[in-house]
Inverse folding.
């Protein structure tokens, strides 16, 4: 019984590590991509209005964030929730898991804020 819980805990932490690495990689890509786009605004042709390019970039960024979180949910979070439901872990492990999920939801807003503030 304990070896099953240990195996599930290892699988959960491995999935959590991969989800966090994917998450931070996406934040870095979004921030660097938006800075590159902002720096290239002065090179736009005159027939493209600047405001429409802003809106286009924001819409593309939101679509990318949506698809990234959908993929993250399908690949990692579904299995992590199944593991948490199947095994009865200690209370600190559940608290760690909850704070981890909150962090996965909060950090993209920091990334979006930093990229918007650079505009």
């Amino acid at each position: 019984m304990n070896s099953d819980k240990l195996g599930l805990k290892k699988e959960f932490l491995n999935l959590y590590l991969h989800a966090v690495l994917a998450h931070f990689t996406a934040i870095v890509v979004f921030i660097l991509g938006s800075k590159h786009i902002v720096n290239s605004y002065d090179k736009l042709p005159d027939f493209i209005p600047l405001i429409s390019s802003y809106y286009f970039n924001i819409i593309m960024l939101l679509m990318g964030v949506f698809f990234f979180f959908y993929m993250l949910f399908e690949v990692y979070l579904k299995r992590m929730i199944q593991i948490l439901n199947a095994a009865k872990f200690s209370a600190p492990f559940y608290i760690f898991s909850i704070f981890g999920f909150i962090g996965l939801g909060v950090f993209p807003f920091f990334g979006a804020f930093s990229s918007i503030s650079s505009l």
Q: What stands out?
A: The first helix runs from residue 2 to 39. The mean pLDDT is 72.
